[in-house]
């Protein structure tokens, strides 16, 4: 019965009426045939009934209001050169993959320009208003308007090609602010394979500490864009990023070290990135920040080491770098960081000391 209960919970929100009816039938049969039926069976039967009721009263949009690619209500309908209308987000993804045909008609497109279908958007908006449905804004949908895309790319070009340090610093500050306040812009780095390299170019020429504020803004931007899941592998596998994060963690300002730690912690959530981060020598400066940093930086450092310690071999390296000694000192000093106890428990399970990478 427990297994059946899990099956119902796994039904997607978009489950069809037939799927819900089949699950309901299984639940009702269990209740009728088993004298010792579970509460879960009754709960899930009621859940299926409620979902069926919602399907019955939920308004169904006209087919022409649905995007042919996503089969969802269009938020930003645009017309392709073939004359077909699509939701901008999904047709742009289609075109960005290199496709030069219309998904519906299969004809070759003479150009990839997208023209807003204002009439369709107005009709969809009226239908939503009539049925009490809120139509998300373009920004909420994750779409980057073309004008914003152009401006953002021009800032990256300034960072990668302009010799004026002051201009680079202005551009770095803007990029940092934009990637923090407007999450859709983080996806820009997923779409442009050289965007990360452009971003960090100022840190590759000369001493990264020559301009601490510039370094701080660029490292903070890496932290911002690493929050976008598809960027995690892209960032870590770029050969310049992890070494720069580790160097900034060693020699940057306290703010830069903290943000570099936060970026490494976020990136290390992806299993394949843990080895890259370890081989770059991140553990030693992480342990040092754990010892020297303020409370928030200590939390980030401890969380990063815990994340890396998921790989068992990394725990002995953390011990070798002095993590246990630092943790015991902080606990003795009554530093209120719960992550320290989690880290101590993890490190206590290591097998034997190992040499560094």
TrEMBL record:
<dbReference type="GO" id="GO:0005634">
    <property type="term" value="C:nucleus"/>
</dbReference>
<dbReference type="InterPro" id="IPR013083">
    <property type="entry name" value="Znf_RING/FYVE/PHD"/>
</dbReference>
<protein>
    <recommendedName>
        <fullName>RING-type E3 ubiquitin transferase</fullName>
        <ecNumber>2.3.2.27</ecNumber>
    </recommendedName>
</protein>
<dbReference type="GO" id="GO:0005737">
    <property type="term" value="C:cytoplasm"/>
</dbReference>
<dbReference type="InterPro" id="IPR011989">
    <property type="entry name" value="ARM-like"/>
</dbReference>
<dbReference type="InterPro" id="IPR045210">
    <property type="entry name" value="RING-Ubox_PUB"/>
</dbReference>
<dbReference type="InterPro" id="IPR016024">
    <property type="entry name" value="ARM-type_fold"/>
</dbReference>
<comment type="pathway">
    <text>Protein modification; protein ubiquitination.</text>
</comment>
<dbReference type="Pfam" id="PF04564">
    <property type="entry name" value="U-box"/>
</dbReference>
<dbReference type="GO" id="GO:0061630">
    <property type="term" value="F:ubiquitin protein ligase activity"/>
</dbReference>
<keyword id="KW-0833">Ubl conjugation pathway</keyword>
<feature type="domain" description="U-box">
    <location>
        <begin position="60"/>
        <end position="134"/>
    </location>
</feature>
<dbReference type="GO" id="GO:0016567">
    <property type="term" value="P:protein ubiquitination"/>
</dbReference>
<dbReference type="InterPro" id="IPR003613">
    <property type="entry name" value="Ubox_domain"/>
</dbReference>
<keyword id="KW-0808">Transferase</keyword>
